[in-house]
Design goal:
Blueprint (H helix, E strand, L loop, with lengths): L13 E3 L41 E3 L2 E10 L2 E8 L6 E3 L4 E5 L4 E3 L16 E5 L8 E6 L3 H6 L3 E10 L4 E5 L8 E5 L6 E6 L3 E3 L1 E4 L3 E12 L5 E12 L5 H6 L30 H43 L1
Parallel strand pairs: 1-13, 2-6, 3-9, 6-17
Antiparallel strand pairs: 3-4, 4-5, 7-8, 8-15, 9-14, 10-13, 10-16, 11-12, 11-15, 16-17
Length: about 325
């Protein structure tokens, strides 16, 4: 984790390390591994401050796509950064369908490490891979808009609030061929699922859809600004999974997603996932400090009670001795 502004308060969330040019693996059947494709463009991208917000409806089928915070008319919001064309643009999630074609179908590995998918090994699921596959849309997230980088305090939080669809949605990352999967979001979970993202981050992950159909995914982006202000916005991502799924249906679908009551508050900094803590603003350290405080209070209470009992016993002994002498 890089040094930055003062650490925020601790919160139990998942955090994603900043990725530059790391080679990341894609979910593949364990019996038939394939070499990972080189990301294109690289994860070290930059975003120009004058990239426009496109109008009109769009269906993104292949190529590079990110979700990320952006200011529109001075209002903090979450948009889709469309890098599928020569000139990148930002798009409104309400007017954009992310199509996951049948080219994304893969078999779930027969490996207990992937039990979190809730799908039996050998079953076929739709996978938007962590490493770019030419004929499948490549979905990640970034905190690289220049104004966003200038105004947020150390990073932002992306929170999965809920999913509506015919199956489950799971997002995870996996670094290296032998590393365990790190689960980020799982739609079966009833609570909001926050994920910390550092400033100037660009990351891609595996998105797994268990069934074809229309999926609406409610995501909140929140942050503390360097001015002390808190900002937050919730948008709905629209997925059409499977070649037979209608994009018109995805655009027309109503986002009646039940949002958990306990949403993440913006700007609180969690521990970097998979790394040792480097400061006091971490959940583990906060928990240990809390336990230490409780134990210290208990110890002091016991010592004080013991001291009072000892003094009382001494007074009674002195009074008894005095009475025996009289």
């Amino acid at each position: 984790m890089t040094a930055g502004r003062a650490l925020g308060r601790a919160r139990m969330t998942t955090a994603i390390p900043r990725c530059a040019a790391a080679v990341l693996v894609v979910l593949l059947a364990a019996a038939s591994p394939a070499p990972a494709a080189e990301p294109s463009p690289g994860l070290g991208q930059t975003i120009a401050p004058d990239q426009p917000v496109a109008t009109g409806r769009a269906t993104l089928v292949t190529g590079h796509v990110d979700i990320g915070p952006r200011y529109v008319d001075d209002q903090w919001t979450l948009l889709i950064h469309d890098g599928t064309q020569a000139q990148p643009v930002w798009r409104n999630p309400d007017d954009t369908v992310l199509r996951v074609s049948d080219a994304a179908l893969q078999e779930v590995p027969d490996d207990p490490a992937y039990a979190f998918l809730g799908v039996d090994g050998g079953e076929r699921v739709y996978v938007v891979p962590q490493v770019q596959k030419p004929d499948v849309v490549w979905i990640g997230w970034n905190t690289q808009d220049p104004r966003v980088m200038q105004t947020i305090d150390r990073g932002a939080t992306l929170t999965l609030l809920g999913v509506r669809g015919p199956g489950t949605v799971t997002t995870f990352i996996q670094s290296g061929n032998f590393s365990a999967p790190q689960v980020l979001w799982r739609s079966p979970e009833p609570a909001a699922q926050p994920m910390w993202v550092e400033v100037n981050t660009h990351t891609h992950a595996n998105w797994v859809f268990s069934e074809p159909g229309v999926y609406l995914v409610a995501v909140q982006v929140s942050a503390d600004l360097i001015t002390g202000e808190k900002v937050s916005a919730t948008r709905t991502l629209r997925f059409a999974v499977g070649d037979a799924t209608s994009t018109d249906e995805a655009l027309a679908a109503t986002a009646d997603i039940a949002v958990p009551a306990a949403q993440a508050s913006p700007g609180e900094a969690p521990t970097q996932a998979g790394e040792a803590s480097d400061g006091p603003g971490t959940p583990l350290l906060a928990a240990l400090v809390g336990i230490a405080v409780v134990l210290a209070i208990a110890l002091v209470t016991v010592l004080l009670r013991g001291a009072r009992a000892k003094r009382r016993a001494e007074r009674e002994h002195v009074a008894s001795a005095a009475g025996g002498q009289s």
